[in-house]
Specification:
CATH superfamily of the largest domain: MFS general substrate transporter like domains
CATH class of the largest domain: Mainly Alpha
Strand content: under 5%
Order of helices and strands: HHHHHHHHHHHHHHHHHHHHH
Number of strands: 0
CATH architecture of the largest domain: Up-down Bundle
Oligomer: single chain
Largest sheet: none
Number of helices: 21
Distance between the termini: 16 Å
Helix content: over 70%
Shape: globular
CATH topology of the largest domain: Growth Hormone, Chain: A
Length: 510
């Protein structure tokens, strides 16, 4: 029996419900990364630069992260199944509007709406999966949910690249529409009897407003800083001040509010705090690599969006294989050792990728990415158990919501930071290489005495070569920085004590 006295689904109906819920989660996570390889196409079609194009990714991720903490209140007030079904419909409508957008501001506005609908999908897909599964099969439900969460960021670039090369960028969003409508109809028809009694819970309006203010201010600052020369701009200084003041006001309010929108009190548990620190570092680093790799392949290596996506996809092959193994090992061994091994593996693999050259062929690029798939489930799956096992049982729902928030917001911040530093490092490397590429001035002399057309071609050829090597140096430098972050996250898990209890999977997300 389920917790609202309705019998659990069984047989074919159980798996229909499970697939619909898992695919809705897949759809929400997929749309965080499906734009990664298509940003150049979208930005170009809408008359925006590549740096502005990253807003397409971050606007969705930030909106999604902000609505995740609201999910518990929405589900209690209006019903989890009702909110889930409506969120899927809104997600489909927003996707349609994204595909119809004719300017970048229009697309960003509809991406925000899409992200706001995606937040409840992340949390409620997990909750409802556990609600329809018999308790003895709860770990199967969690495994299915975790697999879609890990697989979607890898499938996104492949699917986005193939669609852009064979159709056009609006279809990246149009494909969501029929799936969303079908998922909403099936979910409502199959799951409405699992609706819990409604509760008239107060909503923390001030907490939500402060959350929106500091997260939005920080994200806009990160997105625009590279174009406005950071703190030499009054706008960036103002955004930084708003973000800092908003953050501390949010902390003070949430810690003193009786019904906080984000229950920050769970951070008093050292195991949970350490787990969230590791999650922010490791998932941010992983997401940053998923953003950086397609950019490097398209701008530096001449790959099409399809081929860039196919390269990134190799990172998910071993993730699928190792996810069930990691879940099994997490029940048998101290999860902290598995998390350490997973993060250290990711760091070592990223360090391997930091010696890339512009002469590398497809398989030389793919092999490190392929082995990277071992590390992600090795740290992510046991980290979930460690975090949830570190809090009191009645705090599990708050902890799960915060974990979704931290994961999503770290991906958004990582996107901005990676694209900013990649651009800045490439400019710095270009300046340095320009001074040493022709130390004897032989090429410059030949170009100056050559006919005008030949001289122009010569200058362009030298500049293209310097630009290519600059992007390569910037990419390798960022890979080293990301590897260091993975290594820090590996050792940071030592801050967590062994979990006090074994997690009841059926309690997660309720």
């Amino acid at each position: 029996m389920t917790h609202n006295d309705q019998p659990a689904l069984h047989g074919a109906m159980l798996w229909v419900g499970a697939i619909v819920l898992a695919m809705a989660n897949f759809l929400a996570v997929l749309n965080m990364t499906i734009a990664n390889v298509t940003v150049p196409n979208m930005a170009g079609a809408l008359g925006a630069g590549s740096s502005q194009g990253t807003w397409i990714i971050t606007s969705y991720a930030v909106a999604e992260a902000i609505t995740v903490p609201l999910t518990g209140w929405l589900a209690a007030r209006f019903g989890g199944v009702r909110v889930f079904s409506l969120s899927v419909v809104v997600f489909g409508v927003a996707s349609l509007l994204c595909g119809l957008a004719t300017t970048l501001p229009m697309l960003l506005a509809f991406r925000v709406l899409q992200g706001m609908a995606g937040g409840p999908l992340l949390a409620l897909s997990q909750t409802l999966l556990l609600r329809i599964f018999p308790k003895e099969k709860a770990m199967q439900a969690m495994g299915l949910w975790a697999m879609t969460t890990l697989l979607a960021p890898v499938v996104g670039p492949v699917l986005g690249g193939w669609i852009c090369d064979n159709w056009s960028w609006p279809w990246v969003y149009f494909i969501n529409v029929p799936m969303a409508l079908v998922f909403a109809a099936v979910a409502w028809g199959l799951l409405k009897r699992y609706e819990d009694p409604l509760l008239r819970m107060p909503v923390d309006k001030i907490g939500f407003l402060l959350l929106v203010i500091w997260v939005a201010a920080l994200q806009i600052m990160l997105d625009e800083g590279k174009d406005l020369d950071w703190f030499s701009s009054d706008k960036i200084i103002l955004l930084a001040v708003v973000a800092v003041i908003g953050f501390f006001a949010f902390l003070i309010w949430e810690l003193t509010e009786k019904y906080p929108i984000v229950d920050l009190r769970v951070f008093r548990h050292r195991g949970f705090s350490a787990s969230m620190f590791v999650l922010a570092l490791a998932f941010g680093a992983f997401f940053g690599i998923n953003v950086l790799t397609p950019l490097w392949l398209q701008y530096n290596m001449g790959y099409t969006t399809t081929w860039a996506g196919l390269v990134v996809a190799w990172g998910g092959v071993l993730s699928v294989v190792f996810s069930p193994l990691a879940a099994n090992w997490a029940n048998r061994f101290d999860p902290r050792w598995l998390i350490f091994i997973g993060c250290f593996w990711l760091g070592a693999d990223t360090l391997w990728r930091s010696v890339a050259t512009t002469d590398m062929d497809y398989w030389m690029i793919v092999i490190p990415l392929f082995f990277m798939g071992v590390g992600m489930p090795m740290y992510y799956v046991p980290l979930t158990g460690l975090a949830m096992g570190s809090v009191n049982e009645e705090e599990t729902a708050s902890a799960a919501g915060l974990m979704n928030f931290v994961r999503t917001i770290s991906g958004a911040f990582a996107t901005s930071l990676v694209t900013t530093f990649w651009q800045d490092k490439s400019y710095t490397a270009h300046d340095q290489l320009s001074g040493i590429v022709d130390p004897t001035q032989t090429a410059s002399t030949l170009i100056s005495i050559a006919p005008a057309e030949v001289g122009q071609m010569g200058r362009e050829g030298i500049n293209m070569a310097v630009t290519g090597q600059s992007l390569m140096l910037a990419t390798n430098g960022l890979m080293i920085a990301i590897a260091i972050i993975f290594f820090i996250s590996a050792f940071a898990i030592a801050l967590a004590p062994k979990p006090a209890r074994t997690v009841d999977a059926a309690a997660i997300g309720h």
